[in-house]
Amino acid sequence: MKTDSFLQPGLMSLATAVLAATSGENAMAVELVLHEPVVVSQAPAGVKEWGPWQFPLLQRLADGLLLAEFQTGADSATDYGLPMGQAVSDDNGASWHTVPAPGLTAGLRLPNGDELRAIQQPSVPLKGLAMPKPWAVIPGSYDAVVQTYYWRAELPVDLPKGWAFLRRRAGGTEWVKELAQVTVPDQVEYATEGVYVVPFLDQDRIQVAPDGRLLAMLYVRPQMSRHRTVDRRYLSMLLESADHGRSWTCKSTIPYCPDPKADPDWDARDGFTEPQTGRLPDGSLLTLMRTSDGNRRGPLYATRSTDGGASWEKPRVFNGQTGSWPQILSLKNGVTVVASGAPGVYLCWSADPAGKTWSAPLAVVPHGGTCGYSDLLALNDHEFLIVYSSFDIPDRNGQPRKTILCRKVTVRN
Fold first, then answer.
1. With the CA atoms of 391, 394, 395 and 399 taken in that order, what torsion angle do they form, in degrees rounded to the nearest 10?
2. Are 291 and 298 in contact (CB under 8 A)?
3. Torsion (CA) 291, 297, 298, 301 in degrees, nearest 10
4. What is the CATH number of the domain that holds 333?
5. pLDDT at 28
6. What is residue 294's predicted lDDT score, i.e. its pLDDT?
7. Cα separation, 64 vs 394, whole angstroms
């Protein structure tokens, strides 16, 4: 089935935008051209709730096709591990085709030729489980959602083991499930919303370092003091694998370090969340982190590492922006692009190899009507795609639908 790539005339007032920015000591003019948005997938007419047709992911398959994935269940731990909605493109995002069940698998290509895909396993209902005494019960800032933590060693032995991956070996055709060994400080796991959450890594937070090691960001762990008391609900940490994803260890952590002048709600925050790391043209790492939570919107923070992620600079507010899970993409033309959202979806960019100066944000979706999450994928040295959600795109009969959109962006410098 092919998804029609249509938009009614006048639906997007910003079909093409050209802005100029300067960055670095030697100013370089950069223009971003936003091409027409294309429909990837639309939800059924009755789907209005938060969660379905949101949180898109974009990857390139081994055969060159593009695969867009998006959530079709609720934004809840109870729906972790459910199948994703999928669409493919054979023309670099100009049109999209729905992928029927059981779907396709896109993995990260590793230096040894393997492909690796981190997966979520379904959460396990707590009813009927003989759970141990909790180590900590941590209230959250959203709708009184509580996370109950347990020491891993005390959990029932029949619970599913965590950190699952699919691997397709170099030259092979079959994807094989495997469990990685992940060693992080304070071996705790948690339950919430009446289910035990099987530990997992997010596919879009894994990247290959220049030396072939794998790096991955993780944050669903509490930030603790030396006496194992909870300081913050979440702690951002960088994991590293030297054996192609079969085992992982904690390389570094980024403790919550707020700017009280920039955020009046700093002391009520859950911590640094939804961290994303990208490699800048000068070889350093840039990590962006969210602080928006149930205590209103908070600023994005940025920190850099010049030693491969072993240590980090003091986090600072990034470009005056708020937002949820940011995305970072460095093109081979030397321009780095950041997408962030909630509210809206925005792009900013830098021609500074160290990523220290940035353009003003450019609105892809100006304010509400989107989950704010997006993903970026390079097409070539000067073009990339952004996928994002919009909640009120008319279908062929003029009825607004929750929709995943794709848009090509050309960078001129």
1. 90
2. yes
3. 60
4. 2.120.10.10
5. 60
6. 86
7. 30
What is the total count of domains within the chain?
A: 1
Residue corresponding to tokens 């867009």: 68
pLDDT (0 to 100) of residue 342: 75
SS3 141: coil
72 lies in which domain range? Answer: 2-412
Cα(207)–Cα(108) distance, integer angstroms: 8
Query: What CA–CA distance (Å, rounded) separates 347 from 325?
Result: 13
**What count of residues does the chain have?**
413
% residues pLDDT > 90 (the chain): 82
DSSP H or E segment with residue 352 = none
Under-50 pLDDT residues of the chain: 1-27
| Prediction pTM value | 0.92
Element (H, E) at 327: strand 324-330
Reduced to 3 states (helix: H, G, I; strand: E, B; else coil), residue 152 is: helix
Give Dmax (Cα) for the chain: 65
Q: How far is CA 403 from CA 6, 95, 100, in A?
A: 12, 14, 18
What is the per-residue DSSP string for 181-213? EEE-SS-EEEEETTEEPPP---GGGEEE-TTS-
Angle at 407 between CA 405 and CA 409, to 5 degrees: 160
Write the pLDDT tens digit of every residue in 257-286. Answer: 999 999 999 999 999 999 999 999 999 999
**Residue type present at position 161:** K
